[in-house]
Amino acid sequence: MANKTAPDATRRSQRSRQAICEAALALVGETGYDKLTIEGIAARAGVGKQTIYRWWPSKGAVLLDAFTEGVQDGGGTLPDTGDLATDLKAVLRATVDEFNDPAFQAPYRALYVAMVNDSEVSAGFTSKVLEPGTRAYADRIRAAQEAGEVDPDADPELAAEMILSPFAQRWLLRSRPLTHAFTDRLVDQALAGLRPRRA
Amino acid sequence: MANKTAPDATRRSQRSRQAICEAALALVGETGYDKLTIEGIAARAGVGKQTIYRWWPSKGAVLLDAFTEGVQDGGGTLPDTGDLATDLKAVLRATVDEFNDPAFQAPYRALYVAMVNDSEVSAGFTSKVLEPGTRAYADRIRAAQEAGEVDPDADPELAAEMILSPFAQRWLLRSRPLTHAFTDRLVDQALAGLRPRRA
Amino acid sequence: MANKTAPDATRRSQRSRQAICEAALALVGETGYDKLTIEGIAARAGVGKQTIYRWWPSKGAVLLDAFTEGVQDGGGTLPDTGDLATDLKAVLRATVDEFNDPAFQAPYRALYVAMVNDSEVSAGFTSKVLEPGTRAYADRIRAAQEAGEVDPDADPELAAEMILSPFAQRWLLRSRPLTHAFTDRLVDQALAGLRPRRA
Amino acid sequence: MANKTAPDATRRSQRSRQAICEAALALVGETGYDKLTIEGIAARAGVGKQTIYRWWPSKGAVLLDAFTEGVQDGGGTLPDTGDLATDLKAVLRATVDEFNDPAFQAPYRALYVAMVNDSEVSAGFTSKVLEPGTRAYADRIRAAQEAGEVDPDADPELAAEMILSPFAQRWLLRSRPLTHAFTDRLVDQALAGLRPRRA
DNA sequence: CGCTAATCGAGACGGTACGTCCAGTCTTAAC
DNA sequence: GTTAAGACTGGACGTACCGTCTCGATTAGCG
C-alpha cells in the first residue's frame, strides 16, 4: 500500500547483509564516522549501492545494525556477591578497560555521532544497547535494596544513571582520563551521598 | 611552525568574523549540523569561502567560536542561600527550561556532534563552556562543604559531574524527558546517597 | 592501460551528450572561449559536471566534439568547371563571407585557442577539420595538374597550404581585413608565381 | 580626466618592471600560458600584485611587453646576395631551427594564445613583431622586383604572406614537421607558380 | 524442473559541497 | 604616490558522494 513497493525480505541475500555489516565496521574503524560513505561500504563489501539503500535508510542505521549484530545478548546481568560496592566497582573497572581500547572506541564513538544526528538511530541504540546496560545496573541496585543494603527510598534507575553518565560523558568528551580510581570513587560517593553522617 | 604561512591576524576583518559567526548560528538553527555547510555560511554572511578557511580549520571550529562569542563570561556563579539542595534545584530547573527550548537546542546539539567528531573542538568546548559550568557547581558544593553542610571527604568536582552528567546524557540521547522532577530527585539522591541512614 | 577504470561507453546517455554539445556551442558564442566554463556548460545543459568530466578531458575537447558533430562530412569536394582559378576564387569568396560572419567566428576562434593550448585538441581538429579542408583544395589542384593546367612538378598539397594559410593567418590575427579582392589576388599570384614570364 | 586617476609613469619602478618581465617569461616557459597567473608572476618577481595591475591590463599584455623587451630591433633586414631564392631559403632555414627549439617555443606559443584571446594583444604583437618580420621579407622581394628578378605585377606583401603563413600555420597547429626541405620547396613554388611554363 | 519476478553487482546520471586556486579590488605600513 | 604585502569578495576548478535510475546476470520460490 506504500507508494514504494516494499522489498521482499524473504529474498534478501544474507551474504550481502553480512558483507555490508563487516565492511561498515571495518571502515568506521579505519576512517571515522564522517568519512564513512555508503559508496565506500558498497565497494568494500563488493555490493551494489542500491542493495544498501534498499534495506537501510541511512549510514547510521547500517552502523547500528552492524554493531548490534554481535552484541544482541541484551546487556546481561551484574554479579551479585552480596556487596554492592564491590560488584559495581568490578564491573566498572572492566568497562573502563574496554573503553580505553582504541579498537573498540572507533565504532562506538561513531555510533554516538550517528545518534546525536539521527533520532531514529538514537532510539534504536538507546533501546538495544544503552537501556539494557543501565537496567542491568538498576537491577543489581534493586537487589541490594531488597537485601536492605540500600535505602528503600532510593531510585535504582536514577542511581544507575548517576554512576554511568559521568563515565559516559568523560569518555565522550575526552575531558578527563578514564581510570579505575575514578570509577571507584564514583561508586563510593554515589553510595555515601554528600551529606555528612554522624559517626 | 606551521608549513602554511599563517595569516596576519592584525589585518583580520572583524566585520566578516562577526557576520560568519552570526550566519553559522542562524543556519545551524534552521537546518541542523550535518546540513550546515561552509558554502552556506559564506553565502549567508556575504563572505568568500576562503575567508572562512583562512581562519578556521573546520565548520565545528566556526560553530565553537560562534557559540562562545556571546557566552564568554566563564560560567558565572551559583546562588548561595545557605541551603545547597535548594540552590542546586533552582539552577537545574532553569537549565532544564533552557534545554527544552528548541531555539537553544539546535546549536548546542550541533556542537555536541562537532565535538564527538573532532577532538580539537572537543577540547575547546570542554575548556570554554563545560569546565566553567562544572566548576560553578563544584564551587557551590565546596562552599557548602566549608559550611559543614557537606561531608568533608566528598569530592565536589565529582559531585558536580554526578549531577550534571545524567542531565547531559538524557538531553543528548533524548532517552527520557527532562523535567523539574528529574533534576530535583537527582539533587536529593546525590546528597542522600544510596546507603540507608539510621534515623 | 589507463589507471582510472574507463567508463562504460555503451551506457552513455546520448541525451546528455547532445545537450552538452549544444550548450558548449551556445555559450562559446555568447561569452568567448576563456569565459567558457565547465560549470557553465553543465548548468546550461542541465547536466552534472561529472558527466562532462567522465567523457571529456578538457573544455577544448568538448568544444571539438561539439564542433565536429555537425560537420562530419569530411570537408567535401571543390567544384570543377575546368578553370582552376575560377573555381578556387569562388570557393574562397564563399569562405571569406563565412569567416566574416560573427556567429561563425566565435566557436571557430575558440577552437583555435583550445588548439594552441592543447596538443590533443590540436591533433583532433587538424585531422577532423583542417586536413579534409586542405585535401579538398589539393585534390582540385591535382585534377588541374592531370588536365595539364598545372605544372607537373608542382606539389598540390603545398599549393593548398600556400593559399589557405595566408587566409587563416589574416583571420586569426585580425591583422588585415578578409576581402574577396584579397583571396582573388592570392589565387592569381599562387598560379602565376613571382618569376617574370616571357610573354 | 579619467575616473581612475592614471598612475604617474615618472615614478614607476624600473626595477619592478624588469623583474616582472623576467618572471613572466620564466614562468610561461615552465608552465605554459594558461597556468601563468598574475599572482605567480608577482610572487616570482617579489612584487605586489597591484604593481602589475597598475601598469598592465592583462597577463597577455605583460607577456607581450616581456617578449618585445629584448626584440625591439624592429625585425631587421634580409640579406641580399642578388639571388632571391637563395636568400629566402637561408633565412627560412634559420627560422626553422629557431622554432624547433623548445626553449623558444613556449613563450612564443603563449603569445599566440594571448593574441587569439585578446585583440589588444593581437594588435600589439602584430605591429611590433609580426608586421616588421613580414615587411623585411616584402622589402627583400621588392628589391628583387626592382632588379628585374621578380614580375613587376607581383605584390611583394602578399608574396611574403604566402611564404610565411604556411610556415606559421604548421608550427602553430603542429600539423606537419617544420623542415628545411619544406621551406625550400615553399620558396621554389612561390617563385615558380603553378602554371606550367613553356620550356 | 523450468518460469518468472525480485534482488543482485555495477555504475551512469543530476546534483551539492568540498577544499583549493586565482581574479581583481582594497587597505596598510614603509619608503 | 608608489611600493610589497596580503586580506577581501567572488567564482571556477576538479573530486567525492549523495540518492535515483537503469542495465543485464543471477537466483530464489511457485507453479
Provide a descriptive summary of the structure in words.
The first copy, chain A, is mainly alpha-helical and 199 residues long. Chain A has 2 domains: 9-59, Orthogonal Bundle (Arc Repressor Mutant, subunit A); 84-192, Tetracycline Repressor, domain 2 (Orthogonal Bundle). In chain A, 68% of the residues lie in helices and 0% in strands. In chain A, α1 (14-31) packs across α4 (59-70) and α6 crosses α7. The longest helix of chain A has 28 residues, at 119-146. Chains in contact: A-B, C-D. Chains C and D meet through α6, α7, α8 and α9 of C and α6, α7, α8 and α9 of D. The structure holds a DNA duplex (31 and 31 nucleotides).
How would you summarize the topology of this molecule?
4 copies of one chain form a homotetramer.
Chain A: H1 14-31, H2 38-45, H3 49-55, H4 59-70, H5 84-99, H6 102-117, H7 119-146, H8 156-173, H9 180-192
Helix pairs in contact in A: 1-2, 1-4, 1-6, 4-6, 4-7, 5-9, 6-7, 7-8, 8-9
Chain A binds a DNA duplex (31 and 31 nucleotides) through helix 2 and helix 3.
